[in-house]
Amino acid sequence: MEPGTRRQGRGSAFWWDEAGEDLVRRRQNRLPPPPHPFQTSLQFDGVTRYDEWFVTSLIVADGRCQGVTAIEIRTGEMHSIGAGSVILCTGGGGRVYPFTTNGNIKTGDGMALAYRAGVPLKDMEFVQYHPTGLRGTGILITEAARGEGGILVNNEGRRYLQDYDLGLPLDIKDPNHPHKRTMELDPRDRLSQAFIKERAAGRTFQDPDGDYVHLDIRHLGERTIDRKIPMVRELAVRYVGIDPVNQPIPVRTVVHYMMGGIDTDINCATSLPGLFAAGECACVSVNGANRLGSNSLTEILVFGARAGVAAVDHAGQVPPPSRQLLEAARRAEQARLEDTLFQRNGSGETVAGIRADLQRSLEEGAGIFRDQQALERTCAIIAELKRRYQSLALADRSQTFNTELIAALELGAMIDVGEAIAHSALARTESRGSHQRTDHPHRDNDRFLKHSLAYRGEGDPRIGYRDVTITRWPPSERVYGNV
Amino acid sequence: MSDQTVLEVHRYLPDEDAEPRFQSYEVTYKEKWVVLDAMNHIKAEIDPTLSFRWSCRMGICGSCGMMVNGEPKLTCETFIRDYHPDTIKVEPLTHFPVVRDLVINMEDFMEKLPSVSPWLIPAEDEPLEDGEHQQTPAQVAQYQRFSMCINCMLCYSACPVYGLDSKFTGPAALALAQRYNLDSRDDGHGHRADAVTAHEGIWESTYVGECTQVCPKGVDPAGAIQMLKLSYALDWAKSLVMPRGGRT
Question: Can A146 be counted among the known catalytic residues?
Fold first, then answer.
């Protein structure tokens, strides 16, 4: 077959321990790794990539999305790209927190683009912390480490999870360890909450990079570690210089995933015709209030495909955008940046300064445990940061690969996303899934068995609600441990 | 000054600089820091105009490759303590045009990559309804190490053949050609022949490859190139003996 010929790929399952690990470990004897999606895409001549172009706005006219404006980072040139349909697939926004597994580019840009175009962000208060991020780096140490029998230990050498109604520990030498309901394999939010309580009680290890506990896999032995979880060993050795064969791994809770995102229907369509979203940036509600491991693959594979089908269908029904519209959008966007970030005189505000304050305020108010007072303070700080952002000036005025400009644009998105998280969390006066309010510790199905919807406004966002569609499994009490 | 680290960083802004220059930055020595941490500290606290690429800081995205004291490295996994107390010289990856500061232009690679058809080319069209492809662990092991490439470009920076002639397809792209040639689901060996053997560079590559030594993911492009040489030389020999019977 020649390059450029269309053909259908086959379904497959990821199998390395860094992705979809649960699926993989059970199936790795049968399903091979998938062909690389990027490499695979290269055979289709119909795909034009714009590498290192940064989208700055959605072009909206006649009540529908008709394309995007984007900066070509290498030249600083502003472009507009017309489209019958636009699919946002920008991933999450973990970088709005100080300590995250997410890469530097995960600043919530796509969510902010939709939010600014009037599309609500749904369920933004639900932020998943993973219990085992590598100290200092935030690098994810996979659940598979505990699946194979790894244990979490505090600074007194105690398997502290037993003190949080998560069950009783089986001895690590017991042939039944780790069994299916072992406490170390309880949900990410419960384990993360236990860490915070241990830290409050002074039972975590102190470190300037953040307190930590020990993830101990030494008892598995070198052979099992290398055969089953080689990536865990490689990451620990490479990034903190600790070989888990001989030493416990220093880990702490780390922001990992946003259950919330751009409100879409089951076809990945948003309320703005022509705008679609899929993956972590979207909230199609696969994850509810607390994602289960590997369900992000469903969002990518199932809903990525559905978004594609729906977007093609929509694009076929609308006329192409006019050249005048695209040119006007390009000029307006160029003028916006020139009049703001490039023209201002230094006010003392820096990207790094505002960003650090934003991250700190979200961790303090909208972290693992929340209450009204702390959330109100975070909302007030974010309102102030929005004002400070208006006086941000760039030190770098170059057109060539200006990473300070891109970071400033990303920071604008982070502030919008942070605002939606904090206000949605403040309004939900109950505890559910990853959203734990110490002042409202119980679930309140009468008032809050609902999706929250944050709409951007001139001042604070408006928070609305929508009923949850319940099919087979009605919500019930979460019970863990030896029951 | 053992509690300080000095970084000599390559600066080049084509809008302003006629020639590249070096700028010296002094930061507090941190035993836990990698070079990328120091670069991010400089950008946040000292000089926001310093430009470089990075994202995942865990050796997956492949974007933070730079020359560190003359060697191509992923800066996210290159510890400052391994150089301390020496000055650390940070430069853009060699053999590439420089866009700015530490940012290289890798368009050449992006154009070469599709030339080796780095995707599965099955013998016949197999519809989705036929179900999953299956492979044994042994079949996966055939090509797995060659599939670990993160396109970080360290191997191109280290490759003496590419350094002399940038028309050479180069280590990462050739390793990917072999990755697909070795895949039991693939029948594209003949299809890739022209692209793989088009440049004599493949015959100049040696088994003790600089590319393999610098690869942060253990891909072994040099080994892949030796395998490619052997298999395509065999094809050529077969075509002489059996003009119609050889693999095409």
Answer: yes
